[in-house]
Design a protein that fits this description.
The chain is built from 10 helices and 7 strands. The N and C termini lie far apart (about 60 Å). It has a 7-stranded mixed sheet with strand order 3-2-1-4-5-7-6, with helices on both faces. The protein is elongated. Helix 3 links the parallel strand 2 and strand 3. The protein is α/β, with parallel strands linked by helices. The longest helix has about 40 residues. The protein has 2 domains: about 210 residues, 3-Layer(aba) Sandwich (Rossmann fold); about 55 residues.
């Protein structure tokens, strides 16, 4: 059994904290993959939520059980949800670092959709396969699985922002919020650092070409897209989706401006007069 236990500061910028803030307070929650209950404990103790959980590993489930109203041992891909949940409906369904472990993550989020209330939503945290550390590793001919992190050896699916949004849409959801937990390459489990100028140029190129190169995990909130076109939920979801698209475009334009300014500054800094200026004022 892997130990996925960790402490969570609700005010932090980490993916677990972001996910829990999306869950909110006083909710009926179905937590898929509660592991040993790190997020379950916070939902129960700090957010006042009523949690029902599904967990594959019996030993982990035993540790989380005290924070749950009900806990069912089994894989979300195989368990009979009608049998264990019956007519229950939930305000929120969570997949905290779970979808990357499943054979068919799209089928899993499709399976749970009928168990949402009319105003319910799904939240998930998902590792970003296009992080700069992975790109750097691949460019050097390495793809080494690890005990945890982006290349956890139990991951069987890998996601980009585009494939995440597409998966949710294909499963009948609209993504209404998408947040990023960022981590510099040198602070990841890979401890990625350039050891020469060629490697630094490679990292700079990765940063310049991939807006998500510092995103370690995505945190997604999605609502069912099935309500009728005139329903308030559908209208709100559509507006939120359009707002995300608009913000993504603005973010991309801002990043491009920043990169152009950085390139201009680097060029200026390399000029002889700039070197002379530094020399004179350091004396």
């Amino acid at each position: 059994m892997k130990d996925y236990a960790y402490k969570i500061d609700l005010e932090s910028p980490t993916a677990p904290a972001r996910l829990l803030r999306m869950v909110g307070r006083d909710k009926a929650v179905l937590e898929i993959g509660c592991a040993s209950g790190s997020q379950t404990r916070v939902m129960h103790d700090q957010l006042g939520c009523r949690v029902t959980a599904v967990e594959f590993d019996p030993a982990s489930a035993a540790l989380a059980a005290s924070f749950c109203e009900a806990l069912h041992v089994g894989s979300i891909e195989d368990i009979d949800l009608d049998k264990v949940l019956g007519s229950r409906r939930f305000d929120v369904i969570t997949f905290g670092d779970v979808l990357e472990h499943l054979r068919s993550p799209r089928a899993a989020i499709e399976r749970v959709r009928p168990y949402l209330t009319d105003s319910g939503y799904l939240v998930a945290s998902i590792p970003n396969f296009t992080h700069a550390s992975i790109a750097f590793e691949i460019c050097h001919g390495r793809f080494d699985y690890r005990q945890s992190g982006l290349l956890d050896d139990s991951h069987i699916r890998f996601f980009t922002k585009r494939s995440i949004v597409q998966m949710f849409e294909d499963a009948g959801y609209l993504v209404v919020n998408l947040e990023r937990a960022e981590l510099r390459p040198e602070h990841t489990e890979f401890e990625t650092r350039a050891s020469n100028i060629e490697q630094q140029r490679l990292l700079d190129y990765i940063y310049s070409q991939n807006q998500e190169s510092l995103t370690y995990q995505f945190v997604v909130k999605a609502v069912p897209a099935s309500p009728s076109p005139g329903s308030p939920l559908r209208a709100t979801a559509q507006l939120a989706s359009e707002r995300i698209t608009d913000l993504e475009a603005k973010l991309g334009a801002r990043d491009q401006r920043i990169k152009r300014l950085e390139a201009d500054l680097a060029w200026i800094d390399s000029r002889p007069l700039a070197r002379l200026y530094r020399y004179l004022f350091k004396r």
